[in-house]
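Students often ask what a holo structure prediction actually looks like on paper. The answer is less mysterious than it sounds. You provide the chain, you provide the ligand, and the output is a string of discrete structure tokens encoding the 3D arrangement of the protein together with thymidine-5'-diphosphate.
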Amino acid sequence: PDMLVTLEGIDGSGKTTAAEDLREAFPDAVFTREPTDSWYGDAVRRSIGDDDADPLAELFLYTADHADHLSRTIRPALSRGDLVISDRYADSRYAYQSVTIAESGDPGAQSIEDPMAYVRSVHRPFTRAPDLTLYFDVDAETGAERSGATNKFETVSFLRSVRERYERLAAEEPERFVRIDAARPPGDVLEAAVEAIEA
Ligand code: TYD
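The corresponding structure tokens follow.
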């Protein structure tokens, strides 16, 4: 039914587990993710592994991957009339990169007054907004613990800031965002996710 559903949340929120389970519930849907499996996505993963990556360079790598994802996967699937479910999408940039830019000591990044507004403005002209966003909500301590804190994005204080940005996005668009309490057992989380998509 040419509908775009995105899964969002901090690291360790369990959305990737939910995505796996959703495949069984929606066998005809197109499942995809950001970072993608293209070479743009590979470039993004290299940057995630680089503790000194420039936050603006990183924003544009993620955004390049998003542009390719839209033209190669998202728009063709939607025009075929498919249900598309993406594990992470533009809101990940609005939440994560607005924190990395705000917390950067780089003069270029510092001269950006409102990082979230800036990141959104970069996407606005070409992106396709999701019809529904499932927001898997856990606190930063749980997220860091579950994710094992294996990269620069997975510390408690960083995830706390990212979560605050997600809260802001959800408050702005309460109709698009459906909050799922992701601290519950996986079965309950899946049930809530399936219900939201079916509704
Ligand atoms: P992801 O592959 O979803 O994480 P996981 O290893 O848990 O499956 O995302 C990788 C990391 O990249 C994660 O810490 C979130 C971050 N990220 C951003 O900062 N901005 C983005 O736009 C995206 C898509 C991911």
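The radius of gyration is 16 Å.
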